[in-house]
Write a structure and sequence with these properties.
Helices cover about 50% and strands about 10% of the residues. It has about 270 residues and is α+β, with helices and mostly antiparallel strands. Strands 5-4-3-6-7 form a 5-stranded mixed sheet. A two-stranded antiparallel ribbon has the order 1-2. It is globular, with a radius of gyration of 19 Å.
Length: about 270
C-alpha cells in the first residue's frame, strides 16, 4: 500500500517528466492534436495545470466555454474552462505555469501524513472519497495525459519511474474487475499482461478478480509498450494493436477481444 512519500514521488515524477518533454518541443508541436479527444498537446498541459491549481485552493477559471462534441459528461464540462483560459497563452507561459504549480503541489503534498490518507478528501472534481483513493486517481490522470503528450510528439517514455510503477498495477487491477463483471465467460481464467518491463498476472477468479506480480505462470499474454497501454486504458483515438500470444489461440483471442471491448476506463 502506498505511503505519503510514494504519492509525492509519483506526482513529482509525472509533472516534471511532462515539463522535460515540453521544453524540448517547438510551438507547432505544442499545437498537435493528441489521442485525448478535442485536446492538443497544450490543452493537455493546461488541464494538468488547472486541476493542480484547484487542488491548491486557487480560484477556478472563470471563463465561458462553448462545449465541443468531445465533452460528454459533467466531469468533462468542469475540465474545459481551465483549458479554454490557457488557449490564448503562448507555450512558454503554459510551461512556466506547469513548473510553478508543480513546485507548489509538491510542497503541499509533503505535508500529508499517513493517517490523512484515510480521511475523506473534498475540494476536487471527483466528489468526496478517501484521500488515498483520490491521490491514486490523480497520479493515474496525470500519467495518462503525460502519455497523451508523449505519443503526440514522438517522445516515448518507459515504466521506470514511480508514476508508471503506481499506475500500471492500479489500471490492471481495475481492468481485471471490469472484465470479471462484463465478461462472465472469462471467469476462472488467468492471463499475463506485460507493459514494457512490468509483468503482471491477471486473475479473473474468486469473488472480485485482481492482479499481482507475475511469478512465472503460463497462459494467454497481452504485450504493450507503456504509451499504447495507456492509450487503450484511456480509450484514446491513437491506440494501436498489441501483442497477443498463448498456447491456446482461442483463449488468447478471447482475452484480447475482451480487453479491446472494455479497456477504456476513463470518463
Amino acid at each position: 500500500m502506498a505511503n505519503p512519500g510514494d504519492y509525492v514521488a509519483a506526482v513529482r515524477d509525472t509533472l516534471t517528466a511532462t515539463a522535460d518533454v515540453c521544453r524540448d518541443i517547438d510551438d507547432l508541436e505544442w499545437e498537435r492534436p493528441t489521442g485525448c479527444p478535442g485536446w492538443s498537446v497544450k490543452d493537455n498541459v493546461s488541464h494538468m495545470c488547472d486541476v493542480e491549481h484547484l487542488l491548491l485552493g486557487d480560484p477556478p477559471a472563470g471563463v465561458a466555454v462553448e462545449f465541443g462534441e468531445h465533452v460528454i459528461n459533467p466531469v468533462g464540462e468542469r475540465m474545459e474552462p481551465g483549458v479554454e483560459l490557457r488557449r490564448a497563452w503562448p507555450p512558454s507561459e503554459v510551461l512556466a505555469d506547469l513548473e510553478a504549480t508543480t513546485k507548489r503541489r509538491i510542497e503541499q503534498l509533503a505535508d500529508v501524513s499517513e493517517p490523512a490518507l484515510e480521511e475523506t478528501a473534498y475540494g476536487h472534481p471527483l466528489g468526496p472519497m478517501p484521500l488515498r483513493t483520490f491521490l491514486t486517481l490523480r497520479v493515474f490522470d496525470l500519467f495518462t495525459h503525460q502519455q497523451d503528450i508523449r505519443r503526440a510528439v514522438g517522445r516515448l517514455g518507459d515504466t521506470s519511474g514511480p508514476a508508471a510503477q503506481m499506475t500500471v498495477p492500479f489500471a490492471t487491477k481495475s481492468l481485471a474487475r471490469f472484465l470479471f463483471d462484463k465478461q462472465p465467460e472469462l471467469r476462472g481464467q488467468t492471463f499475463v499482461l506485460t507493459v514494457d518491463d512490468i509483468t503482471l498476472t491477471v486473475e479473473l477468479t474468486g469473488e472480485r478478480a485482481g492482479a499481482r506480480k507475475w511469478t512465472g505462470e503460463e497462459g494467454p499474454q497481452l504485450s504493450f509498450d507503456i504509451g499504447n497501454f495507456m492509450a487503450w486504458i484511456g480509450g484514446r483515438s491513437d491506440r494501436a494493436d498489441f501483442g497477443c500470444t498463448g498456447e491456446s489461440e482461442a483463449n488468447a483471442l478471447a482475452v484480447a477481444a475482451a480487453f479491446r471491448a472494455h479497456a477504456g476506463m476513463t470518463p
